[in-house]
Amino acid sequence: MKFGIVVFPGTWSDKDTHHAVNGVLGQDAEYIWHGDETLDGYDAIVLPGGFSYGDFLRCGAIARFSPVMEAVRAFADRGGPVVGICNGFQVLCESGLLPGVLMRNDHLEFRCIWTDLKVVNASTVFTSAATEGQTLRIPMSHGEGNFQADAATIERLEGNGQVVFRYADGAGNVTPEINPNGSINNIAGIVNERGNVMGMMPHPEKACETLIGGDDGNVIFNSMIDNIVASMA
Amino acid sequence: MTVSQETLDEIALSRSEYEAIVDRLGREPEPLELGLFGALWSEHCGYKHTKALLRTLPSSSDRLLVAPGAENAGVIDLGDGLAVAFKIESHNHPSAVEPFEGAATGVGGIVRDIFAMGARPIALLNSLRFGKPDDARTRYLLNGVIGGISSYGNCIGIPDVGGEIFFSDTYKGNPLVNAMCVGLIENGKMASASAKEPGDLLLLVGADTGRDGIHGASGLASRAFEEQAELRSAVQVGNPFLEKILIEACIESLDLPGVVGLQDCGAAGITSAAIEMAERSGMGLKLLIDKVPRREEGMTPYEVMLSESQERMLLAVTPGKEGPVFDLFEKWDLDATIIGEFELGENVRIYDNGEQVSSTPVVTLTDAPEYKFTGVKPQWLTDLQNVDLGTVPVPTESPSEVLLKMLAAPNIASRFPIYRQYDYHVQTNTVIEPGGDAAVLRLKGSKRGIAVSTDCNGRICYLDPEVGTAIAVAEACRNLSVTGAEPVALTDGLNFGNPETPDVQFQLTESIAGMGRAAEAFGIPIVSGNASLYNQSAGTDIFPTPIIGSLGLLEDVEKHSTVGFKSVGDLIVLLGTATTWDCVEGLAGSEYLELIHDQIAGQPAIDLDLEVRTQAVCREAIARDMVASGHDVSDGGAAVAIAESAIIGGIGVAITEEPGDRWDAAMFGESQSRILLSISPEHLDELKELTKAKDVPIVVIGTVGGDSLVFGNSISVPLVDADDAWKNGFSRAISD
Questions:
Q1: Superfamily, domain B373-413+561-736
Q2: Is 0.90 exceeded by the ipTM?
Q3: pTM over cut 0.90
């Protein structure tokens, strides 16, 4: 299968994502310049982390107008899997492909730490290789990851099982103390209603080998690979 | 002479330097020329007070691909087709005036130095010095500097993996902000900051040029500095987004056949960048100053030449091949403009709207004067060294209380509250994260890895600049060796006071002698560096602070060692000493002496032969899989090193020997060349054989286990208390 990795000016997780899906997991992967208007031949799209357009105006607010985003929307409308990581999550929210907003961390500082993510929905194409309730150790690195939405949206997300990951402690306890950014209900990642577009703040591509601290991030890419390969069979 | 003192002050040239210019030119310089001289003859660009000393440093190595000074940074071969360029640079005075932008643009500047070599920046480190954190302005400076580094470094996608922060009154009005960058060069794809042939075009790419930073090199960096609000306009404002795309575009441009040279525009802007390129190329240069894209109306040629606007680079491009170069920069939404061409001849000729406004020989501009001096040891220093540390009173508080105070001290407590604001994972190479003695990075596509660290204890350099700087080199290397990495090269960031005073001349002379002596003992070169002088506030010079950046190589990156104890029952040993505890002489310049007794005194000492042997044994033990954990014994002495390994490992310890009557010196003395290891008992005989063969003393001091730090029979500190002091000490110290 083939991953397409979108590169906006200011993206920096593109090479890390390429290394994880291609270098470690052996899948085809290509970079897609933000000016491209078609996404033919790709089985999954990644919007990686970084500071697209320097986070000017608001994180992701300018990248959403890049030509490639129309193609990403069309790809998602066809049911293609799209994952937005960190800045990619912010771009998806700004584009309206995912609900909610990512506000400044409640403590107002940038935070680079390892987080334990509790998998609260293991039936998505992004988490099927995990078991429900399991924690994945994946680092985060952001200043604006405080997920918020209006009460009705949160109720809908929770009711539909659209919340995929919550910040937890190593034992899987979801507590206010462990919340690293003020995110409502400790939300670290969500999917759209159809289940084919996911956004998450922590970086699975940064947890791809034990030598660099852990490989739990591969669970997410392996889930995508399993599901896409199965759907192609 | 027609020049006014006011003009000379503005560009920080002395009257005798002006006379030398007139003499060499055979005429009075034009005002524009004088600005060029002021910039290029500044300490920052011209190294007037340090050139002669720096020449004495060891600079050869089998691994050296580019010699120090030949390009923007020296380059070291790592094998497997990989090489690294690395360098440390200061941004002290801008950070004192405007901490956020000063620190941010400090990061931006050193990063440009590195990718100008064709190297992809893979790591940043920061070595910071501030006054004591109980002062509101110091906390403002600290928060601004950390914020600036965080904001700039995170945006450009380079992991910030290490460094130091040290607080001392000496830095109160004049903080030090030094940034180090390491870049990776693959398959010999190195860039040179020069043109190839006369006729090569000079392209300026990146940001437009504004009035920011004029006289940055000559004003802020090169004269007696007092914090002056008026100099705020001489601090540049950074745009990390522009830097990020500039990195990508410039590295990509090196694959184009037309691009023959790449140079960063840093201190003294186009003046220094373009004229140094011409000098390196052995050519003249015609500069079309009116072509430089500007951000402001009405800028004079003088202002354009001296602007230090950030995020600009120069390219030398073969004429006729510039088309694809323009296309590439357009793809990245970056401006690229031809602003001149290299030519046969000796002069840099500046044109404004078709009219030549100056013509000056390149080598006259770049050949800054060289001041030689020898230092005389001041009496006050002899007096300080001769203080009898045996007269220091033993504290009335208990050893446990003092240990907790030490662990919570701003100079010792965990730096996690700071480095969690920096991205240290991006690029997915970080094997040992910040918080260890050195950071370790794997090199993708190779079994090898590198370790990087910075070190310098200004207090110890103040007490003995020669020995103190040798110790800085030893510690910077020891930080590498405890991870298993072999030191291969150094960079130096010289931070000193006013070089026109006898004391600072003594400090500079001695410090560089000590650096050279230690680097020779390790057999490694100093490949790059930076000099920041005139660091003083309220008329007092800072402690001499020669920050040493070190680079180490691991043949097999999987075989590395970390700080935390690993297993209950492991033996704790000290390498490099035959005794568990230190003696009173070890209190010289120690953290304990300043923190508890508010005293800075004593004679620091180091045996470099023992140091080199001890580190070699440590590395070999790690390579032979004998070592469970390794930690450098430095600030806070053996007791603090033991406590840190216990806290990080989450396991207590029992140390057999009683610290005794002078428990303070025993526990907190900072005698050099000591390395704390924990090993599985089955490896003890093998380790002892190794130390015996290499003539390195070793002592087994205790075992890992329990939930307390137990020293002898009388001292026991619950691990949870030590953990709280060490992990939260920093946040408590800097909270209002």
A1: PurM-like C-terminal domain (3.90.650.10)
A2: yes
A3: yes
